[in-house]
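Recall that a protein's primary structure is simply its ordered list of amino acids. Everything else, from secondary elements to tertiary packing, is in principle encoded there. The following example makes that idea concrete.
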Amino acid sequence: DLENVKRWLRLEARNKDFAREKEEVFLGAVCLAMYPTTRYQFVMFRPPRGWINEDGSRSITVVDEHLPPIGNFQVSDADFKWLELVDQLLSDDGNPKHSNSLRSLYRTWFVQGTQRFEMFTVAIDALMPSSCNGYRKKCEWIWKHCGEEVDMFGLEILFRRLRSDVAHGDAASIQQSKHYGRFLELYAKDPLEAVELIACRILQRKIFGDKLRVQDHPISLMENSDHIRDIYLRETGATDLPEGCISLDFLNRGHSND
């Protein structure tokens, strides 16, 4: 229903600052619903945005050019379940912890490397109770809310040792920390990608439960998608297009604690 979709394209607020906050919450939710491999692909153009004031006057500006590829974001009936939860977040009775977490996720679109790593950890922190005030307690909370059995040792490398190196200046970037290479060696996964997957898994579960629908594989949205799909399956040997669900299987691999 186009009329239902339009209401998320116009956000009402007391002033521009509140409108921007609401915009960040909504787009953070959109970020969470994107197919994982497309989340940080950028179209590099400057789309316009506008403001309509109470007196009827209007102003037009443009957003940052690092806009993710949301032009192909398709809304179906299944999406209204989680979009209605976004409506609740945008209301005066919305959960501020959930809103702050989504705003932090939204901000990962405009930074890279170490800054993006830090914003993922901030997005997770926003959901934690205030009693999680140390790295060990944070790791225990993350382990509890991942939704599947994962290796605590791997979580401690990411959210205790690697994060501590960056926060306290022992490494200028996550790549310069010795724990970056250690995690990569043990789990065959880039630590930045690992933190992204863990953060998105936790945000999906804590904020939207089982209501969030991740977008379909980009190939299914293309013209002549059946032909392109056949080429993809033939070249990769896969039996079907991969789904957008988040797997943390890489954190179940064996390791040595030395």
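The longest strand covers residues 48-52. The mean pLDDT is 82.
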